[in-house]
TrEMBL record:
Species name: Thermobifida fusca (strain YX)
One Pfam match: APH_6_hur
Keywords assigned: Kinase, Transferase
GO biological process, one term: secondary metabolic process
Protein name per UniProt: Similar to Streptomycin 6-kinase
């Protein structure tokens, strides 16, 4: 058992997992080296290094028996991994998500295709053309769904309520408590609920399509979406982060909304309202990361009041 497996995470990742899953995550982490070894043996892979850990999982870079690189992702919540595997399977024909090589829904492990070069858009730090983003979103939304598949996806309203509950707790418990007024969060939640309920043309949504969840797949592959939180709802929802990320004014957000909305086939005013709804979440995230003195925070607060 190599050091990567025996010491898979740092203190910050441990804190994230405990914050998300409670103290039970510590017991899970105690058994993680054994779990990784078991899955790698069963799937004929070897661990080569640590991957970028998220809020809900631990990630390893590995290699399959045929020499192809892969990603092993393991979560304390097997249901999350099972749901991710099912959603990725819906989009398997698009080439816009990683291939799924294996899933263990009981132990919470999934083996995925490694995307090359594989840097996230957040890591690259450059905003792609909005036409590329709308093309990705449209392709994800356009897959045909059977009635059974539609019933497996949670409605968008469930995702909205989960996120606003999560970020309201983050606001109250962090520096944002003194910087982002509670009425902003309450108004945003109410607006998001209204938008989620209004939409009749529900499509399969990625659910968390921010710059950290889109990879550079190179010239041939293009943009590739990872870590979906699949749900069913308003197509404008998946474009929210892209209308706002790294903007410096409300006018710039409105311009992006125009381009994105035209590409995915929704009214631009509707996308802008989604941005207003989620503005207090953006502001809370920035404040809690010590970025209340940035242009991004100023724009987020202006958007809250738009």
């Amino acid at each position: 058992m190599n050091n990567v497996v025996t010491q898979p995470i740092d203190d910050k990742q441990q804190e994230r997992l405990v914050r998300r899953f409670g103290a039970g995550a510590l017991h899970w982490l105690d058994g993680l080296p054994r779990l990784v070894t078991e899955l790698m043996d069963e799937w004929g892979c070897t661990v080569e290094g640590r991957g970028p850990h998220g809020q809900t999982s631990v990630v390893f870079r590995c290699r399959r028996a045929d020499g192809t690189p892969a990603i092993l992702k393991i979560s304390p919540d097997p249901a999350l991994i099972g749901a991710e595997g099912r959603v990725l399977a819906l989009w398997a024909s698009t080439d816009r998500v990683p291939k799924v090589y294996a899933v263990d829904t009981e132990r919470g492990g999934i083996l995925l295709e490694a995307i090359e070069p594989g840097f996230t858009i957040a890591e690259l730090g450059t905003v792609p053309p909005m036409e590329q983003i709308s093309s990705l979103i449209t392709e994800l939304h356009s897959i045909p769904l059977s009635d059974a598949q539609r019933q497996e996806l949670h409605p968008l309203i469930s995702r909205v309520n989960f996120l606003f509950d999560l970020w309201e707790r983050a606001r109250v418990e962090g520096p944002a408590a003194d910087l982002v007024p509670a009425p902003f969060m309450h108004h945003g939640h109410a607006l998001a609920r209204t938008l989620a309920w209004e939409e009749e043309n529900a499509v399969p949504l990625h659910g968390e399509l921010h710059p950290g969840n889109i990879l550079d797949g190179g010239v041939r592959r293009g943009l590739v979406a990872i870590d979906p939180r699949g749900c069913l709802g308003d197509p404008a929802y998946d474009a929210i982060d892209w209308a706002v990320w790294q903007t410096e004014s409300l006018a710039e957000i409105e311009e992006r909304c125009m381009v994105l909305a035209a590409g995915i086939g929704v009214p631009h005013q509707r996308l802008f309202r989604w941005c207003v709804a989620f503005a207090p979440i953006f502001a809370t995230a920035l404040a809690n990361r010590g970025r209340a003195d940035t242009v991004a925070f100023k724009v987020a607060m202006e958007l809250c009041a738009a």
